[in-house]
Amino acid sequence: MSVTANIKPSKAVDRVAIRSWKNPILLGVLALFAVVVFALLGPSGDATFRISQDSDVWQVPNLVLPTKVFGIVVALLCVGLAVTAYRQMKQEGRIAKWVTMAFAVVFVVGLLVWIIGGTKTQNITLVGLFTGAMLITTPLVFGSLSGVLCERSGVVNIAIEGQLLAGAFTAALVASITQNAFAGLLAAAVAGMLVSFLLAAFSIKYVVNQIIVGVVLNVLVSGLTGFLFEKIMKTKVDGVTIYNQPVHLPDLPIPFLSEIPILGPMLFRQSIIGYLMLILVAAIWFGLFRTRWGLRIRAVGEHPKAADTVGINVNRTRFLNVLAGGAIAGVGGAYFTLVAVSSFSKDMTGGLGFIALAALIFGRWNPIGAALAALLFGVAGNLQSILSLAGTPIDGQFLAMLPYALTILAVSGFVGKSRAPAADGEPYIKG
Amino acid sequence: MSETQTVKEPTPPAKESQGSQVFREIMSGSAMISVLAVFVALVIGGILIAVTDPRVSASSGYFFADPGATLSAVWSAVSEAYGALWRGATYDPTARTWQGQLGIFETLTFATPLILSGLAVTLAFRAGLFNIGAQGQILLGATFAGIIGFQMQLPPVIHLLAVILAGAIGGAIWGGIAGFLKARTGAHEVIVTIMLNYIAVSLVLYLLKNQLKAPGSTNPISAQMHDTALFPLLLGPNFRLNAGFILAILAVIVVAWLLNRSTLGFEYRAIGANPKAARTAGMLVSRGYTTVMLISGALAGLAGVAQIAGTEKTLDSDIAGSIGFDAITVALLGRSKPWGTFFAALLFGAFKAGGTSMAVNADVSIDIVAVVQSLIVLFIAAPPLIRSIFRIKAVRREGASA
Question: What is the complex's ipTM, to 2 decimals?
């Protein structure tokens, strides 16, 4: 009796406290930005989006948008959505999901048109934009999936960067020695698992702060691969560096699907790593949220004591998840040397592991969310390199900042509610 | 760490005499573990050097016929590398110039920004915050210092003071953002500082391509600092060692006083030990988070000043090098104590100075230094591991398990 009486008022208090104005404020600021920049200061002329390549079977006509008019429409839509968000928050204390989502889509499209309309040439090939983005997105997805597995079970994985780098190095080395790309792929997974093993051993067995271990492992892998790169990969045999000539994984286009405009070249003309990525995103999402296995993992990450009480071995679950995450990130690292570029170079992952961490947080610790965030970051990154030559209204460096700025907004509660698993980063000591 | 322990256990075991207590502390306590961790890390580094040495692999082909040849090859590979490291970091009688012989001053020069940024990490760590963002704070500090240093004309001493102040402010802003967001929204400082590191690089690159670019240059590099804005050299023009080192020592003294003697430092340590208890005791935890990150950022900003006004003299986006990440390992090796950080920074400075000479004289890539450094920290962070390697018994501490 008294228990229920106690709970009820506190729930009501919670509901009032949850009403947060951060989201409507952010949408309002962005809408204002849209009005001023896209509509009032919008460039004149047309922005042309080329959808088909000349070699495509189905030719889709170019999409031509009058920049100024389109900017005004986008601005109006943004203002409307911001007002909706404000009213929803006032009346119901929460914003419907579709409002934020629609705002994000409209704003991003508006931004893209504004940027392209502001360049000198005023046109862009969408196929190039998206297929080029996959070069960044693919390792990001693998990295953030590794993070999802680790963090859902309660282990913070700052070592994604190290896992990717270890995978890239090992794949290059093994694929060069064996002249077999698949052996390289397998070795990369093992290398990622080795990094993960250190992370798990130190953070779970020796209960060292997980962030410390992660940071240190990144330095360790960077130093180790750099050292071995100088010592082994630069060694010349008969004037050729034979240890850094990895065999590449072949592209395997899927007959019918690969002809779909944009999506085809982007998703269905990939190497086996690309298809593995699609399968893994779906499988991990299904596993985490629809199976007993996933329920257990999430229980371990949210409330390890409760999980332990019902007989789940908390630390073994975590250990296995961290190992699996390492294998996945290792495969993502292999993408660098077996698909994207021709050979290993020092620190070639270049901080992508940290963007993967950002994608994971921005995607709210959800495999599909993380993959979409990785796609967004990939497109932003590729747009930056495409536009660096085209004289844009916005400096490429600001596009480069986008993933990081969005992540800060997400963790400080301005973009939806990004909440880590409750026991993320907390070691579990039985007793 | 000893201060916190005395706070935790007001009644130390009284049965032992003071002397044997100290002896046991040294033999099995944190200092001994640090030394052993360095030793084990160097051994593993030596194994790596030996395994990848061409002479060793050549002689290992006939290992069973002549094991002595392999062993002597291993010995010469490792001793050459570590010998070059040691001589490069301290004193090298074989160097061609007399300036080149005195590597010890290069060690101090490399240690200067490490001391300052290590203190930044240490201070935040004692308040329970993980400042991974020293990298970005150094960059912002260097940028602010640079703006005063190469874009303004001021009288000699005032110019340098203005540069130092600007650098501290730049770092403090960048660190303060993370502290403020942590205090106000609960955003995890690790994530925010990592992201701020990358934003700082983009921001500085943007500035270097536009407002701060050196006139006539095509690269994103700034103009040179005015002479009045530079730290004076301590040992004449032959050595790079400059007054930044003195600033670093002053910072150690100030931070030691702040942490151990001041009310603010007590608050920080209380918040770091148990934020809930600190809140109950009437401390403003959120204000503590903001101010400690402001001070921490300012210290890292000073490391940026040490770079731009001491050794680099021009601003580029790579001015922080790997200092921001080394700072984390320095702070961990120094066990989050100001003077511990100081000596850890000296050691890592020696690694940097010696690593260059090792790369030149023994043909061992400087990357091995990163390997050894990270291994040191891993072993120090996991005392049970070192204890089990050397079969040291843990000192029993009553009430320390909490």
Answer: 0.85
